[in-house]
Write a structure and sequence with these properties.
Blueprint: E1 3-7, H1 20-24, E2 27-28, H2 32-45, E3 50-53, H3 54-57, H4 61-70, E4 75-79, H5 85-98, E5 103-107, H6 109-113, H7 115-119, E6 126-128, H8 133-145, H9 149-152, E7 158-162, E8 165-168, E9 195-196, E10 204-207, E11 210-211, E12 228-229, H10 232-244, E13 249-252, H11 261-274, E14 279-284, H12 291-300, E15 302-310, H13 314-319, H14 326-338, E16 342-349, H15 356-369, E17 373-378, H16 386-393, H17 401-407, H18 424-439, H19 442-450, H20 455-470
Parallel strand pairs: 1-3, 1-4, 4-5, 5-6, 10-13, 13-14, 14-15, 15-16, 16-17
Antiparallel strand pairs: 2-9, 6-7, 7-8, 11-12
Length: about 475
C-alpha cells in the first residue's frame, strides 16, 4: 500500500487572534504529530510513507497536483487544524479529482473536536479523532487485509462511511507509555527547509516530551487533560539523534514541560552530562519555575522560556483561571533573567469585560517585564473551549458558529471576538499599536539586530519588523 501524508498549501487560513503578517513571517515548524504517525506506521508495517509538506517546500496547489499525477497513491493522510480546514478540504478534493481511487483520512486537533462533521465533508473517507499513531496504523492494516466493516468498527477513534451512514467510534485512543512510540520520522523530510524567526541556531527541530496539561486556562482546548510524559533517557536518545543530523537548536513544544519538575531536573542533568551540542527553548507556566530549576535549565542549554502572561489585571487573570498574579509573573521573569535565560511573553487583549485602560496596562506591563519577544493576541472563544461554551451559555455567542463552520467550511467565515466594549477594527488597531510600542523601543531593535544569524534571517526579521513598525499586520 502506498501511503502519502500531505501538509496542505497555505492558500486560505482562517484569520486567527494573531495578525496574519505576524503568523506568516514567523517561519515553518515540522509537523510533529504527522511525523509520529508516519514513524509508527513504518515501524509496525514496514511500509515507507511519503511526506509532502507544501509550506516547507514552497508548493502551491498546481505544484501539489503535479506531484499527485506523477506518483500513484492508495491512502492520503492529512492533519487538520480548524484554521487550515479549508486548505485541508481543498487538498482532499484535489486528491479525489486526480486520484479518484485513492482514500483520504483526516486527523488532527480539528478532527478531535469535530469528528462527525469532518467525516461528512466531500472527499473524506476516514477520520481519526484523538491520538493517531496506533489508530492510523491499524486502519492501514485493515485496508491491506480487505477492509471488513466489522474490523474498521473496532478501531478506536476511527470514523468511516458505511453506505450513507457515518460511523464514528466513540472512544479515542490514548497512549500511556510514550516511550513505546518511535521517534518522529524526520528522515522523511528535509530539515533544512524549516526555520523560525525566533530560532537561535543554524538548524532547528521541535521535540515533544509530554502530552496533555492539567492546568485549567479558560481559553485552552486541552484544558485539564491527562498529563503523560516520556522518560529523560528516551528524550536524550532523540536529542542525540538530532545532534547527529546537525541540529543545534531545539524547541520543546510541550504545553508545559515544567509540570513535573523532578523529571525536568533529571533531563537537564542528563543533557548537561552528555555534552550534546545543542541549545533549546521551552514553554512554561510562571507558577511552575523556581530559581533552582532555572539554573538547571540554563546549565543544560536552555536559552529562552515562553511564558503565558495574558494580562496585567488580577481580575482578568482570575476570570481566565490562570491561577497566578501579576506579582508572580514579574517574579518569574526576574528569576529567568537573573539565570541568564531569555524570555517570550504571550499576552492577550480584548478579554471579555476588559476595558481599554486594562488592555493598555497589559502592554505597559509587558514592556516592563522586558522579554526578548512579546506577542499580543486577541482573546478569542475557540472551538469547544470553556470560554466558548461560557460565551454561548451567556448568550454572547449566538448558536454554535464553530460547529456550523466545521460542517460547511465557508471561505467567508471570520473569527468573532465578542467583546462588546470594542469593535473588531478597534481591537486590531489596539493589537497593532501594542506590537509597535513593544518592538519600536531602542532596546528591542538592538536585540533583533544582535540576534541575526544569516542574510536570510536578516531579510525575514527586516520584513516582519517593517510591518510591525508601520502597523501593517493585517496582511
Amino acid at each position: 500500500m502506498r501511503v502519502l501524508f500531505i501538509v496542505p498549501p497555505e492558500t486560505h487560513s482562517i484569520e486567527s487572534s494573531v495578525p496574519p503578517a505576524l503568523e506568516a513571517g514567523k517561519g515553518v515548524y515540522p509537523k510533529l504529530g504527522l511525523l509520529y504517525v508516519a514513524a509508527h506506521l513504518e515501524r509496525a508495517t514496514g511500509l515507507r510513507p511519503r511526506v509532502i509538506d507544501c509550506p516547507a517546500e514552497g508548493l502551491g496547489e498546481a505544484e501539489l497536483a503535479a506531484r499527485l499525477r506523477a506518483e500513484p497513491v492508495d491512502l492520503v493522510g492529512i492533519s487538520a487544524l480548524t484554521f487550515n480546514l479549508i486548505d485541508c478540504w481543498r487538498v482532499a478534493r484535489l486528491v479525489k479529482r486526480i486520484r479518484p481511487e485513492a482514500l483520504v483520512c483526516l486527523g488532527g486537533q480539528h478532527v478531535t473536536l469535530y469528528p462527525r462533521e469532518t467525516l461528512g465533508l466531500e472527499g473524506v473517507d476516514f477520520v481519526i479523532h484523538g491520538e493517531g499513531e496506533r489508530s492510523f496504523t491499524r486502519l492501514v492494516e485493515v485496508l491491506r487485509a480487505g477492509a471488513r466493516p466489522e474490523e474498521l468498527a473496532r478501531i478506536r477513534g476511527l470514523g468511516f462511511r458505511r453506505g450513507e451512514e457515518l460511523f464514528v467510534h466513540p472512544e479515542q485512543d490514548r497512549i500511556e507509555d510514550l516511550d513505546a512510540l518511535p521517534h518522529p520520522a524526520r528522515h522523511l523530510i528535509d530539515l533544512d527547509r524549516y526555520d523560525h524567526v525566533a530560532a537561535a541556531g543554524r538548524r532547528m527541530a521541535t521535540v515533544q516530551t509530554s502530552r496533555g496539561c492539567p492546568a485549567r486556562c479558560l481559553f485552552c482546548d486541552i484544558r485539564r487533560t491527562a498529563f503523560r510524559k516520556r522518560s529523560p533517557e528516551d528524550v536524550l536518545r532523540e536529542l542525540r539523534d538530532l545532534a547527529d543530523r546537525g541540529v543545534d537548536d531545539v524547541f520543546f513544544v510541550d504545553d508545559t514541560i515544567t509540570i513535573d519538575r523532578q523529571r525536568l531536573f533529571e533531563l537537564c542533568e542528563l543533557v548537561r552530562r552528555s555534552g550534546v551540542p545543542l541549545r533549546f527553548k521551552i514553554s512554561a507556566r510562571v507558577d511552575t519555575v523556581t530559581p533552582r530549576l532555572l539554573e538547571a535549565l540554563r546549565r543544560a542549554g536552555c536559552y529562552r522560556i515562553h511564558y503565558g502572561v495574558e494580562s496585567a489585571s488580577p481580575r482578568l487573570l482570575r476570570y481566565l483561571q490562570k491561577q497566578t498574579t501579576p506579582e508572580r509573573i514579574a517574579e518569574a521573569f526576574r528569576w529567568t533573567h537573573e539565570a541568564g535565560i531569555g524570555t517570550f511573553a504571550y499576552c492577550m487583549i480584548g478579554i471579555p469585560t476588559e476595558t481599554r485602560a486594562e488592555a493598555l496596562n497589559t502592554v505597559d506591563f509587558a514592556i516592563a517585564l522586558d522579554p526578548d519577544f512579546a506577542q499580543f493576541s486577541i482573546c478569542t472563544p475557540y472551538p469547544r473551549t470553556a470560554l466558548y461554551e461560557s460565551m454561548r451559555t451567556l448568550g454572547h455567542v449566538p448558536g454554535d458558529p464553530w460547529r456550523s463552520f466545521a460542517k460547511r467550511p465557508d471561505p467567508s467565515f471570520r473569527v468573532r471576538f465578542w467583546n462588546p466594549a470594542f469593535s473588531e477594527e478597534e481591537l486590531r488597531a489596539l493589537q497593532a499599536e501594542a506590537h509597535r510600542r513593544f518592538y519600536s523601543r531602542p532596546r528591542a531593535v538592538a536585540r533583533r539586530a544582535a540576534s541575526v544569524r544569516s542574510w536570510r534571517d536578516l531579510r525575514a526579521k527586516a520584513r516582519l519588523g517593517a510591518k510591525i513598525l508601520l502597523g501593517r499586520l493585517s496582511g
